[in-house]
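pasting input
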Amino acid sequence: MDTVTQQIPLEHFLVVSAIVFSIGIYGVLTRRNAVLILMSVELMLNAASINMVAFAAYTSPQVMTGIIFAVFIITVAAAEVGLALAIILRIFRNRGTSNVDEVNQLKW
Amino acid sequence: MNMQDAWVLPLLPAAAFVVLALFGPYLPRRGDFLAILAIGATFVLTLPIIADFTDALAMQGEEFVGVANSIRWLEVPGQLELDLGIHVDGLTVVMLVVVSFVAFMVQVYSLGYMKGDERYGWYYAVISLFAASMIALVLADNFLLLYFSWELVGLCSYLLIGHYNHLRSAAEASKKAFITTRIGDVGLLIGIILLWTETGTMNIQGVIEAAEAGAIGDEKFTAAVVLLFLGAMGKSAQFPFHVWLPDAMEGPTPVSALIHAATMVVAGVYLVARTLPLFELMSGGTELVLAIGLVTTFMSAGMGLVMTDIKRVIAYSTLNSLGLMFVALGVGSPAAAMLYLFTHAFFKALLFLGAGSVIHATEQQDVSRLGGLWSKMPLTGAMFAIGALSMAGLPFLAGFWAKDEILVALLENRAAFALVLLTLPMTALYMARVFILTFLGETKDEEARELAHESPPSMLVPLGLLTVLTVVAGFVVFDQVGEAMGFPGGIGEVIYLHDPHAFEFDVAVTLGSIGLVALGLLGGWYAYAVRIELPARMTATFRPVHTLLVNKFYMDDLYQAIIDRIILAISRMLAWFDRNVVNDTGIDGPALATGFAAYLTKFQQTGKLPSYALAIVIGIVALACVAFSLKV
């Protein structure tokens, strides 16, 4: 019985991961709204997770390290979202905006 | 108490210092009784040591060179061995008696004199340390311990001269004393190091033996001995370092007594006496000592004539005496020098403590405002008179014997002999002057007369004991007296073992010196008690001389000029270098450069999140490129 690993080569997963990561970077650099930036960051994290799982499945299927790492990344991302949303909420309450380019007081 | 145990002696007052300095404020009477107890015990313990010494001398006779007791203090195998220890011989024993007795008397006297002083406890603490360090100095068998103690003596004198530290003059006098003696101390330190590197030992006796064996090169030896002598000159206030001693009168009067009689200025005399063989080995060494002593004694006799401060007159008389001691050392008669030191300690302490009584009672120390105190304080007056006559050198008082010894020793050196003879009537004259102006005649200041009263017993008893010693101490020159006290062969044998010297009398010299002293005393009587307008007329006639003397031969001004022109000029250069090169360039330079760099780069800190994100991404990409290029 053919498994996924025999039918699809590793490179395809890596290409998908790279595309998702690049979309994430693009989003972080171009969006002004903090919530959207946060979502783009999530995309980048997920791209990394895809990499982890793909390498784990193709190179050493018996060892669970990469998969466990992905689980950790999801956990950290969840915590991070909770924290970041709280910060964004406070900024919005204080300044009436969640656009990052309008929050520029901390500078020289 | 054997001679080997003498190391205990300095520890007692040193312990008193520690206790008083740490716990003084919590002790009843601020602990003064502890200090007096310690120094009293030291004096009492000195007596069995003398007994042990005389026993050893009787047993071994000429063979006896003293007892040493030392411990290995520091050792670097194969490179360095330093011993600390004590050495007790005749010289040490004489110094021990003088130091512990005078310090004891001064401390008892201070009970009355310093009563009610703000820093009473601290005064007693430091004066204990002073005595302890001087005792350690005379006990030291090596240059290392000697130098430690030497510096401690300097420190204590600084602290005590500046005791009234709310007075600007006292603070400046203490600095002057410290810095002036320090110039000599540096010389001493270099000299010791030089001798040590040449001979490999710190032991004084060892150095002398090595020098006698010719282990030291001529030039280095000369340099080392001259440097040692520089230290002695600074401590003993010899010309040209004498300037600190009169200013040191700013301290409390008992401190002046201690400094002049026992613990400070005689350290230099002791050092030269201890290392005299080195001076004799160096060509011109003894001549140097003699010349410095003569200049000091002659100049100070002149200055003593015109000073109006009672303590300053006595201070100049001390310079006069110290000069004489150096003269005696210079002509190779250490026994005479040590005899003078021994007797001088008693009458000089007496003079200072007597002057202290007057100052304590009248709060006035200017003789031109004192006078007629005899009726108010007859005891002090009588005892002061005995001290003054002894200083002048009247027969049978302590000061007479040693002075005549020195004159006899000088007989072969005509010029020096004449110069010393010339100072005799001068000394007598100014001692008569200071006594007459203080105790006789009219009172010039009513307030001082109102205040005058006889001193309390705590001050009179030490004065009385010192007076007794001033009268009898000189008789030790007779062999019979020495033998009665247990010194076989008389005191002359004891004081300086390396050079046994029986005291000689020369009738002509003695009569001559008595005549000159009497001339000075009668002249003083005539000028200050009979025709009291005479001194003013003399002053007017010899105006230039008087001006020169009152201005202390312009030595202070010379020093001031040297400081202003040379030292301050160098200081200004160094200050400029420090400000411009070290500070502005060396320290401010990097700081300014960092600040400028920060100014240039701080505008990257825009506060805009997207630009930061972009920077991060660019950075990561760049790092990735580098990583890949390295790998490929």
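fyi The mean pLDDT of chain B is 86.
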